[in-house]
Amino acid sequence: xxxxxxxxxxxxxxxxxxxxxxxxxxxxxxxxxxxxxxxxxxxxxxxxxxxxxxxxxxxxxxxxxxxxxxxxxxxxxxxxxxxxxxxxxxxxxxxxxxxxxxxxxxxxxxxxxxxxxxxxxxxxxxxxxxxxxxxxx
Length: 137
Known about the structure:
Layout: H1 2-11, H2 18-81, H3 83-134
């Protein structure tokens, strides 16, 4: 009986491209299955990452505030107890402010030069475009 069924099956013609279509369909099912697994995994990973990031943020802000408060208390005690040290700290703070202000002004000058150059180029292109529109090219 098995031989008869096997012989009958062997005699049935196989359509052209059937193997390729079946292979492509199987590959498509596998890709869909992998995507489904990734979609199920991603929300869980994102949840854990969000919780970890929240803890890190809260810890970082808390530590920063705590250390800033502690440093302010130490600085106030040191500064107010010794007038010479207070003057030195004030000069240091003003020098730091002046340095950063000068540094920022340098960046501002570079940005202004770039802006001027861009504006000049834009105006030149605009003049060329106007000449082209009026037919004086």
